[in-house]
Design brief:
Strand content: 25-35%
Shape: globular
Structural class: alpha/beta
Low-confidence stretches: none
Helix content: 25-40%
CATH topology of the largest domain: FAD/NAD(P)-binding domain
CATH architecture of the largest domain: 3-Layer(bba) Sandwich
CATH class of the largest domain: Alpha Beta
Distance between the termini: 52 Å
Strand order of the largest sheet: 5-2-1-9-23-22
Number of domains: 3
């Protein structure tokens, strides 16, 4: 069996390894136009702020060869699915194909001499420019944009962050939660900003701004090679014998909504499933919940499930330790729909763990009343008797009962 894989990011590299584990006799060849092997794209902002780029490389090209995967530093020029032929530097036949070609930056306005962050080369170039600059403009206050802004601040660059939406992290946090976070991070942020054109460090829109350079982080769009975006099922299959994983794909989530992937956590899991199935397996993915987390300016942020506007929500701000201990402030917003736990947003120490606990409840289709009764581990030095999630869930339980959403 010959398995061709396009892309060596989180999805492609994982697919190659799991295909090899599933079928030791399979001939697997991996195409990667960068030639860097597998590295963590999620860690690129750390390269900007000073981490040695070698540290984020997880598998070098010779590591693939060592485990029996043929690594090709080649750009795929053409794929004929019906004929089972892929063309890099030469045409080759395949029995199974896994497309993990990632995404490319999306920019909704004209931009010249601006920077984008998509690969290791971009991170190195941005750092080089930043070290010789005093100030910068970052357009887009999503996860990547805010992480870039933090990275630039760490190396002494003044940053102005511009966002089109009325709050930062619009795909992750409701406005009330985002505003709470914005007050804590202390960045120079302009909301409701519509950029129209960028020339180097000059940004033109409903107001004009000037910096030494501009980084655009207005999102990514899938790079599916055979089509713009590839819709896959729970087996990560596009059509018989053809699989796809990672940022180039669209999937149906737990709530029945189709969404672009765009998260490394899901890409890796898709890679596992696609690799095993391409090599003869029959595995299925759980429908994703799109749990997200990051840590910016020392503050942990996390979210999962639906937004507050799509259900009934309750918010609680408290401490992660009893009042007589030196705890840290935590915000928890819990969301219900049809009487069941459906989403959460958290800010503060342990936010990701809070969201992970909620994710299990969502998968279990747990009712708000039952969730509110769950005990949490307690010791004065670790957690209060009723933690912030327990408090939020009890408030939500009463609210759901009052509104009759059960």
């Amino acid at each position: 069996m010959r398995i061709a894989i396009v892309g060596s990011g989180s999805a492609g590299a994982t697919a190659a390894q799991f295909a090899k584990k599933m079928n030791r006799n399979a001939e697997i060849f991996l195409f990667d136009r960068e030639g860097m092997g597998l590295y963590s794209r999620c860690a690129l902002p750390y390269v900007i702020s000073g981490m040695e780029w070698e540290k984020i490389v997880e598998m070098r090209p010779d590591d693939f060869e060592r485990i029996g995967i043929s690594y090709r530093k080649e750009e795929v020029k053409k794929i004929d699915i019906d004929a089972g032929i892929i063309e890099g530097e030469r045409e080759e036949e395949f029995d199974r194909l896994i497309i993990a070609s990632g995404s490319v930056p999306y920019c909704p306005f004209k931009a010249e001499d601006a920077y984008f962050l998509r690969n290791l080369k971009d991170a190195i170039e941005i750092r080089k420019k930043a070290l010789n600059s005093r100030n910068a403009i970052v357009i887009g206050a999503g996860l990547i944009g805010i992480e870039i802004a933090e990275a630039l601040k760490k190396i002494g660059v003044d940053v102005k962050l511009l966002e089109y939406m009325p709050n930062i992290l619009p795909n992750m946090l409701d406005k009330d939660v985002a505003d709470y976070l914005m007050r804590k991070i202390g960045l120079d942020i302009v909301l409701n900003y519509k950029a129209e054109e960028v020339h180097g460090g000059e940004v033109f829109g409903n107001e004009n701004y000037r910096g030494d350079f501009t980084v655009i982080a207005t999102g990514n769009k899938p790079n599916g090679i055979i089509k713009d975006i590839i819709e896959v099922d729970e087996k990560c299959m596009f059509k018989e014998g053809i699989y796809a994983a990672g940022d180039c794909t669209k999937v149906k989530d737990f709530f029945g909504r189709f969404s672009n992937v765009g998260l490394g956590s899901i890409a890796v899991r898709q890679g596992m499933i696609a690799g095993e199935n391409a090599a003869g397996g029959d595995e299925k993915m759980l429908p994703p919940l799109f749990a997200k987390t990051t840590k910016i300016f020392g503050i942990e942020i996390a979210s999962v499930g639906i937004m507050g506007s799509d259900g009934i929500s309750a918010k609680y701000i408290g401490k992660d330790l009893p009042n007589y201990m030196k705890g840290e402030e935590i915000l928890v917003k819990l969301i219900a729909k049809d009487g069941k736990i459906a989403g959460a947003q958290a800010i503060g120490r342990g936010a990701a763990k809070i969201v992970d606990k909620v994710a299990v409840a969502i998968y279990a289709k747990m009712g708000v009343k039952d969730f509110a009764k769950i005990e949490n581990a307690y010791a004065p030095s670790v957690a209060p008797v009723f933690d912030c999630l327990a408090m939020a869930s009890n408030i939500l339980w009463r609210k759901v009962e009052d509104e009759g959403d059960i």
